[in-house]
Design goal:
- Helix 10 packs parallel to helix 22, helix 14 packs antiparallel against helix 15 and helix 18 packs antiparallel against helix 19.
- Among the domains are: 109 residues, Serine Threonine Protein Phosphatase 5, Tetratricopeptide repeat (Alpha Horseshoe), CATH 1.25.40.10; 88 residues, Serine Threonine Protein Phosphatase 5, Tetratricopeptide repeat.
- It is 82% helix and 0% strand.
- The longest helix is centred in the C-terminal third of the chain and has 26 residues.
- It is mostly helical.
């Protein structure tokens, strides 16, 4: 019994889980590797025992962003489970899960061309099994999430509506999974600045989760957060703050004050206070969140990197540049080591550091980083992607600040065209692009070019306000006007 490989594997699996729960991810990887090797030696590399363990090991590598090690393991797991399930074709639930895990890895790497066929295969498998089952709806949702990230909003909307209908028929319109569908569709509309549609769905999801799950459930907190973010985007801070505070308290009670999701709430509230320039309130929240995420997720995790950038960005706003620079440099270095120098998220970290240098008046350093980020976005995402437009706009803003107006203008104009096609004329980033160009023309003394843009901006913003007025501003519209002034 002492040498029984099954007992040893079970012990290693328990050790892996314990290390992972404690945030000791490197120790977890070591234990998982030992368990996988033992399973391979005992049962062979085409066994379910080995297939399960390389999935777990691959996901651990993904968690620490060792993608070069994660990918071959997750690919191998797909092949193992495909062979095991020869009798039933490709319908085994673990095979489906392995496809999902590999697709999620590619999605995180922005390798959308690799993720899409995997998610489509899952949709087809689930459809053939039972197109009325909630699992089919989940597969539709996962594919929709990919399309949403790719800004293929029409494709995403069609799939989300279909998934919502399947869940409604299978589970009823009071089920938490139906509320999840409402949230997902609301987020899609929110992303496209269809605020009137988004608000209705967010509020409906809140009511379902409140009734079914209760006001102390983490999913209820997530629904509160979603609605709060919409109010943040609209600049209605007094409506966002109580929702964020309530969500934070729910998560603290449900998950504890050392949980990374609680840290996310701290970050969210810190972001609100930063927007209000209440820096003394924002700083301790960002610091607390960063420490929790460092301990629970590790220093290579994307969420920890975001915390570094949040705190660095706050110090930049406070003009505490000596505090901001080391944090933003650390974020850049983590992204470079974990993602490589051609990943869009590495480019975004470069832009954060560039913005700091621009604020400091170190324009040459800023330009070098902005140009590097622009080239990465061009190669990794293409010239029609909104993130590429953002990089163009960032570089143009630097040129505008240096009074190099002739260099700034074509970049702003290009950003406008990309955002118009990719996001539509209702999107805040498109309106911001128009504002940037209008300001540039005023600075150049070209008021005849600026004024038509200002008129267009006013028309778009007035139309947007009128569409959401009744949804947001009811009995308390006078209070909103007073606070907005």
């Amino acid at each position: 019994m002492a040498n029984d490989p099954n007992i040893k594997m079970k012990e290693l699996d328990q050790l892996t889980a314990r290390f992972a729960q404690q945030g000791k991810l490197l120790e977890a990887v070591d234990a998982a590797q030992q368990s996988a090797t033992l399973a391979k030696d005992t049962y062979g590399e085409n066994s379910g025992a080995y297939g399960n363990r390389i999935i777990g090991l691959g996901l651990l590598y993904k968690r620490i962003r060792a993608y070069d090690k994660a990918e071959p393991l997750l690919r191998q797991a797909v092949e193992v489970w495909k062979k095991i399930d020869m009798g039933e074709g490709s319908l085994h639930r673990i095979y489906i899960a392995s496809l999902n895990d590999l697709a999620a890895l590619y999605q995180e790497l922005r390798a959308y061309d690799k993720a899409e066929p995997l998610l489509k295969e899952i949709v087809e498998i689930q459809r053939n099994l039972n197109e009325k089952h909630p699992d089919y709806a989940t597969s539709l949702y996962n594919l929709a999430a990919l399309y949403s990230e790719m800004r293929a909003y029409d494709k995403a909307e069609a799939l989300l509506l279909q998934a919502m209908e399947v869940r409604k028929k299978a589970l009823g319109d009071k089920h938490p999974d139906y509320a999840t569908s409402l949230n997902s569709l609301a987020w899609l509309y929110h992303e496209q600045s269809e605020y009137d549609k988004a608000i209705t769905l967010y509020q409906q999801a809140i009511e379902i989760r409140k009734t079914v799950l209760g006001e102390e459930h983490p999913d209820y907190a997530s629904s509160l957060n979603n609605l709060a973010f919409l109010y943040l985007d609209l600049g209605i801070y007094y409506k966002a703050e109580p929702l964020l505070l309530q969500a934070m308290e729910v998560r603290k009670k449900a998950l504890g004050d050392k949980h990374p999701i609680y840290a996310t709430s701290l970050n969210n509230l810190g972001g609100l206070y930063q927007s209000l320039k209440a820096y003394d309130k924002a700083e301790p929240l960002f610091r607390q969140a960063m420490e929790i995420q460092k301990k629970t997720l590790g220093e290579t995790h994307s969420v920890y990197v975001k915390s570094l950038e949040n705190l660095g960005g706050l110090y930049r706003s406070m003009q505490a540049y000596n505090k901001a620079e080391p944090l933003l440099k650390q974020a850049v270095e983590i992204q470079r080591k974990t993602l490589g120098e051609y990943h869009p998220d590495y480019a975004n970290s470069l832009k954060s550091l560039a913005f700091l240098y621009q604020s400091m008046g170190a324009y040459d350093k800023a330009e070098t980083l902005y140009r590097q980020a622009l080239e990465i976005h061009k190669k990794s995402l293409g010239e029609d992607h909104p993130d590429y437009a953002s990089s163009l706009s960032n570089l143009a803003g630097l040129y505008k600040e240096r009074k190099w107006y002739d260099k700034a203008e074509p970049l702003y104009r290009q950003a406008i065209e990309i955002r118009k096609k990719a996001l539509g004329e209702k999107h805040p980033k498109y309106i911001t692009s128009l504002e940037n160009l209008a300001i540039l023309y005023y600075l150049m003394g070209s008021k005849d070019k600026a004024e038509p843009l200002i008129n267009q901006i006013c028309e778009l913003e007035l139309r947007q306000v009128s569409e959401v007025w009744e949804k947001i501003l009811t009995k308390d519209h006078t209070e909103w006007l007073d606070k907005s002034q």
